[in-house]
Amino acid sequence: MAKTRSATGLVAIIYILLSRSGLGAAPPSVVQVLDKWQSSYQWMKCVSMSFQTKLEDHVSDVSLLESDPNLNGHSTDTFQFARDGDRLSLKGELVFYRAGADKPLVTRQEIVTCAEGQIDCNYQGHIPRSANFLSQPKERDKELAFTPQFEGPLNSQQIGNSGLSLIEIIRGCSDAHCTDLGAVPGVGDDCVLIEASSEYGQIKVWLDARRGYNLVQYEQDRKAHDRYDLQPVDHLSFRPDPGWSAVEFHSSLRHVELQLIDGQSIPRSGVYRSRLIFQNGQTSDYNATYSRSDIKLNPDFSASHSFDIDLPDGTPIALDPPDGSGVRHELRSGRVVKAIDADAVAGLNTAVAQVESGPGAPKSDQTGWGRSIAENYTFLIIIGSTAVLVGAALAARRRYLGGEIND
Length: 407
Fold this sequence. Notes:
By secondary structure, the chain is an alpha+beta fold. It folds into two domains: 30-304, outer membrane lipoprotein receptor (LolB), chain A, CATH 2.50.20; 341-360 and 370-407, no CATH class. Helices cover 24% and strands 40% of the residues. The strands form two sheets. The protein has a 16-stranded mixed β-sheet with strand order 7-8-9-10-13-14-15-1-2-3-4-5-6-16-17-18. The protein starts with a helix and ends in a 6-residue tail after the last helix.
């Protein structure tokens, strides 16, 4: 009996030691790890920051560049980003340096939510080139805020995944599994590796459990039959030639640096690489370095004016989706309204001015009311008809000038 007690006590001591060290604990499930990874982005619900994306494109085939020099070049995108719940603001500049060109192509872009929806505007220089009003911004929020050409890879949004995050894709993989790796030099202090086979290829993700389960490394390898957005990889081609059918697509995110801000670990920078390999051995490379700065959690947006729409009154606005009315719209005082026809308004103003000045005051060469009864009756009928018409015109003008989208 004494030996039994001793053995039981020894097992209990070993169990306590293992539990405290973490060696005896069961590894977290994939679902638990994905939930923790998802929660690592909670800080983005109320934040302002600057971010910069440096991109490089390179195609190995020289003859292909002769027909399309845009395939080789580099660009630097600098944006101010703000988000407050459903409100979103993205304002910045894209500078593209095409290989061999003397001057870069500069495009400014703004995406700002307003009372009724969201405005998306592109500038050529300082002139608004096009502006769209999105009446359903919540459905497009992920598409606009985390597109890969901005800083998507730092937010688990990778190129060619049909707008799905890595978290969403892995949740749908029945063979997904995770492994505790501990410290991985150059990657993280306490890494958890998630591996999964998906319709978008083989996925590997490294998360740092000690740093809030943030994404610290990623690899995705696709073969010809795997999906790239809505089509197989082998449908990707630069030329109508079987040799230019893609056979592999590889992408990765490495060298992720985390920064501790207000107790929250936030990815501050990372390096993205992708390579498309064609059947003829030619390649197309896409490299990007993402960096964030001036990160402020729960900032005072009233002081920063982050959600002000920096467009002049009268900027034409295209409705998305169209309302079917055929009426043009424009921006006025930060709101999308029906466009004003200057000639029509001038005509209405003239008619109103005539009514406000009185019904045909007598002039020096007129006898006024010293007319025949028939003439006075005719005059009254004309004045009465004019009053009805002008009254209708005044009502029309009020509707026209106040024609908000939600009328």
